[in-house]
Write a structure and sequence with these properties.
Elements (H helix, E strand, L loop, with lengths): L1 H33 L4 E3 L8 E5 L6 H10 L3 E6 L10 E3 L2 E4 L2 E5 L3 E6 L7 E9 L5 H10 L4 E5 L8 H9 L3 E4 L18 H17 L8 E2 L13 H13 L3 E2 L4 E2 L14 H18 L4 E6 L2 H16 L3 E2 L14
Parallel strand pairs: 3-7, 8-9, 8-14, 8-15, 9-10, 11-12, 13-14
Antiparallel strand pairs: 1-2, 2-6, 4-7, 5-6
Bound molecules: zinc ion.
Zinc ion binds next to strand 8.
Length: 339
């Protein structure tokens, strides 16, 4: 009886051990087949060893570097003059291409061509509510002086009258984006833009029609809600999400802001503070707060006289702090409704 028990016990232990080995084997095989990159391909016809890695072109530079690090491939970043920051524009390597992958020969250095910038120093300047008769051209000139690219959220009902300003904005390398047709924030008005999602979508259509009517092609669908997504005082956070979803379904990317000069709000101005001092102080404070949170730096300003007059000082400050300007189409979407 005792012996039988012992034998049964030993058999049970052996079975458990076999099971454990089997489970480990299954996990190993599973991992091998599910980990797509990188894998070494030793049976290459040239009898060389390669690492198979996803094609890096178009990838974020940080992701490409991480992939090469994992594969223990040595790489260097070759600076390429481009308006696209931290994206791999081209890859130089010894090896071949296979479908979506690169076969990179072991022991070679991969060259990643990219415009590498410290991501925390990229800043997206935005100007709302234009174009205007007296300011748009001067704002464009000042931006040119500093080699700064920006994004202009314009109103559809200004397109016909100021088509020349919109054309110049695009020609000079900036982004023209949608800020509704009418910007009507009067609750009592028939044209109140936040009456319903349908009314809001109609605003977007009218904006697009206005551009088309003026013979202007805007290659993006980028939108800023008048007043911001849920800071406009009309939409709750929940309602804002519904409007954001409706806009996205119409193909739009939505951007609020993470920094501002307060050029449309005097309530934080100190006694006797000049426009320049007020704008710069507001900008510094908001940039610091958003940097600390790791947010993309999207600066709200307006196409208006006070900003036009202070813009050179603002740009001077940003350049001295090492900021690099980019257009909003290169920025990840950011909305108050979702943050
Ligand atoms: Zn506005």
């Amino acid at each position: 009886m005792n012996n039988e028990n012992k034998n049964t016990g030993a058999l049970a232990i052996a079975l458990v051990l076999c099971l454990i080995v089997l489970v480990i084997l299954v996990i190993c095989v599973y991992e091998k087949f599910t980990s797509s990159t990188p894998t070494v391909t030793p049976d290459d016809p040239d009898d060389k060893q390669y690492v198979t890695i996803s094609n890096l072109t178009g990838m974020n530079l940080a992701d490409a570097k991480a992939m090469l690090d994992d594969a223990e491939i040595i790489y260097e970043v070759v600076h390429t003059d481009s308006e696209l920051y931290n994206k791999v524009l081209n890859v130089e390597y010894t090896g071949k291409t296979e479908a979506e992958n690169l076969l990179i020969e072991l022991g070679t250095t991969v060259k990643l061509h990219a415009n590498e910038i410290d991501p925390s120093k990229i800043i997206y300047l935005t100007f709302d509510d234009g174009p205007t008769a007296g300011n748009t051209f001067e704002i464009l000139d000042t931006l040119d002086q500093y080699g700064a690219k920006a994004s202009f959220f314009v109103l559809g009902n200004r397109v016909i009258q100021y088509a020349d300003r919109i054309e110049a904005t695009i020609e000079r390398g900036h982004i023209v984006a949608c800020h509704s047709y009418s910007h009507d924030l009067d609750r009592d008005s028939d044209g109140f833009i936040y009456t319903s999602t349908d009314a809001f979508l109609h605003e977007l259509e009218m904006y697009e029609n206005a551009l088309r009517g003026a013979g202007i092609t805007v290659s993006n669908k980028i939108l800023r809600f008048p007043g911001g997504t849920c800071t406009n005082g009309y939409l709750s956070k929940e309602d804002s999400l519904e409007y954001v979803t409706a806009a996205r379904n119409a193909g739009y990317k939505v951007y609020d802001w993470t920094a501002l000069t307060n050029d449309a709000d005097n309530s934080y101005r100190l006694d006797g503070e000049s426009d320049k001092d007020y704008f710069l102080r507001s900008l510094k404070e908001s940039l610091t707060a958003s940097s600390e949170k790791g947010l993309p730096l999207i600066v709200l300003m307006h196409d208006k006289l006070t900003t036009n007059e202070c813009l050179a000082d603002i740009l001077e400050y940003l350049v001295s702090e090492g900021y690099v300007f980019d257009t909003i189409d290169h920025c990840p979407e950011y909305t108050f409704a979702e943050n």
